[in-house]
Specification:
about 260 residues; single chain; DUF347; transmembrane; membrane; mainly alpha; Membrane-anchored protein
Length: about 260
């Protein structure tokens, strides 16, 4: 197989953050605004995620639509996992944050033990792809619990929480490009932190003014960011096809 993960560019991070925002507002939309409740919403999203993962695993290379649909659904699923534990089971956010952090460490340890690399540039076997998506799911759940812990349990609020996480992401970027921080560590650290950053931003936009948000509502915010994600995926598909056409023409010229 060819590598199943897209090139890490600024647009990648923007789409990832928008996916985390939709994951937060989408989960609230389905379970709260539409009245589905957490159990029904979790079951529906899990079923869709399984179908999307099957399509993703069957692909032989990176296909933008399949890849980003999985990311979007995993974002919602990670949010629901955290919410189920906190809201239904009554587990404190401090505990869920610690448990998900430990679980992520276990996934990384198992991945490294089996493959001797955590690089996302060589996701070219079934086993590596399975480890990759397991890590992604846990990062979304960890980011949800960590973001809620800071914004709600510790009383930072949505705006200050977003600023804190944005500062942390920018510091990691600076450390990587200016101080030569290890690329693999920088990627995964940023991946974890962009989850609560996107969620805090989504909550800031969608939650009522009385709760510290701007009161835009989950429906408009979810729709707006979903439209942006679809547009970005269309651009990824266009760029991929244009690059393939260019390579094909180069081959024709070289043969001629």
């Amino acid at each position: 197989m060819l590598n199943k993960v897209p090139e890490i560019t600024l647009l990648f991070w923007l789409v990832k953050m928008m996916s985390t925002t939709v994951g937060e507002t989408g989960a609230d939309l389905l379970s709260g605004t539409l009245g589905w409740g957490l159990p029904v919403t979790s079951a529906a999203v899990t079923a869709l995620l399984i179908v999307a993962l099957i399509a993703q695993f069957r692909a032989k290379s990176y296909e933008p639509a399949k890849y980003w649909v999985v990311v979007l659904l995993i974002s919602v699923a990670g949010t629901l996992v955290s919410d189920m534990l906190v809201d239904l089971a009554g587990v404190p956010l401090t505990v869920t944050t610690a448990v998900f952090a430990a679980l992520l460490a276990i996934v990384f340890f198992a991945w490294w033990s089996q493959e001797r690399t955590l690089s996302i540039h060589t996701i070219n076997t079934r086993k590596r792809e399975a480890f990759y998506w397991a890590a992604i799911l846990v990062t979304f759940a960890l980011g949800t619990s960590g973001g809620d812990l800071l914004g709600e349990a510790l009383g930072f609020g949505y705006e200050l929480s977003a600023l804190v996480f944005l500062s942390a992401v920018l510091f990691i970027a600076f450390a990587h490009f200016a101080l030569r921080l290890n690329a693999v560590f920088a990627f995964w650290a940023a991946y974890v932190l962009t989850r609560p950053l996107g969620a805090s931003f989504g909550d800031l936009l969608s939650q009522p003014i009385s709760a510290g948000g701007l009161g835009m509502g989950t429906v408009p915010v979810s729709i707006a960011f979903t439209v942006c994600i679809v547009a970005a995926i269309a651009w990824f598909v266009y760029e991929q096809r244009r690059a393939a056409t260019g390579r094909h023409r180069e081959m024709e010229v070289s043969v001629a």
